Amino acid sequence: MKAIGIVGSPRKNGNVDRLVQEVLDGAEEAGYEITKYNLNDLSYSGCQACDYCKSHENCKIDDDLSGLLEEIREADAVVFGSPIYFLLFSGQFKLMVDRMYSFIDPGFRSSLAPGKKAVIVTSQGNPDLPALEKAADDFAEVLRFLGFEVAEIIRMENGGAPDAVLERKDLLDKAKSAGLAL
Ligand SMILES: Cc1cc2nc3c(=O)[nH]c(=O)nc-3n(C[C@H](O)[C@H](O)[C@H](O)COP(=O)(O)O)c2cc1C
User: In this structure, what CATH number is given to the domain that contains residue 65?
Assistant: First the structure.
């Protein structure tokens, strides 16, 4: 079984990165082979709306995201992590989501194998957690449309400092448990 983690924050060892890693560590303990990708290390473009993927099984663009899209297709579980930037997920993350359009077939159904599990991780500076929960809730809908089972959403507030999560044993434990339960 394969679990991959995708970090949409440019901050290495920041809050999202650490929480995604914690979920992956739990998954590894549960028997998954794990890999983590930092989107900010990759060079890729957004969807070009060329519809090549509606007559072929893959995205026409050949860049650093091509391999990651294949990894998502093959994974049994995916941990999707993004910070909140101006109320939404980061630009790095959104570019990837648009490229996931290539997982939708001409009949507008998902071409992904059913039964994949997903965990979503978010972090925000705002102390008011419910104020910004829409970003993750909307992305969870996208994942469900693609056939994922969204097993858990882990949300962190007061995440201004990159290492703020180290004081949040509750969230680190929740992330590890989510990975163990995959
Ligand atoms: C460009 C930018 C936009 C941001 N916009 C918001 C926002 O709209 N609401 C919020 O609560 N925090 C916002 N933040 C703060 C981040 O969401 C917060 O620091 C988060 O914990 C970062 O996660 P990380 O440590 O994984 O990078 C923003 C930060 C940046 C750099």
Answer: 3.40.50.360
- Cα 53 to averaged position of ligand 1 atoms, centre (Å): 33
pLDDT in tens, the chain (182 residues): 999 999 999 999 999 999 999 999 999 999 999 999 999 999 999 999 999 999 998 999 999 999 999 999 999 999 999 999 999 999 999 999 999 999 999 999 999 999 999 999 999 999 999 999 999 999 999 999 999 999 999 999 999 999 999 999 999 999 999 999 99
Ligand 1 and 21: CB distance under 6 A: no
Question: Which residue's CA lies nearest to atom 2 of ligand 1?
Answer: 85
Residue ranges making up the domain that contains 11: 2-180
- Ligand 1 neighbour 130 (Cβ under 6 A): no
Terminal Cα-to-Cα distance of the chain (whole angstroms): 10
Overall domain count for the chain? 1
Could you tell me the pTM of the whole model? 0.98
Atom number, ligand 1, closest to the C-alpha of residue 160: 19
DSSP 29-91: HTT-EEEEEEGGGS---------GGGTSSS-S--SHHHHHHHHHHH-SEEEEEEEEETTEE-H
CB-facing half-sphere around the CA of 178: CA atoms within 13 A: 30
Say if CB 82 and CB 119 are below 8 A apart. Answer: no
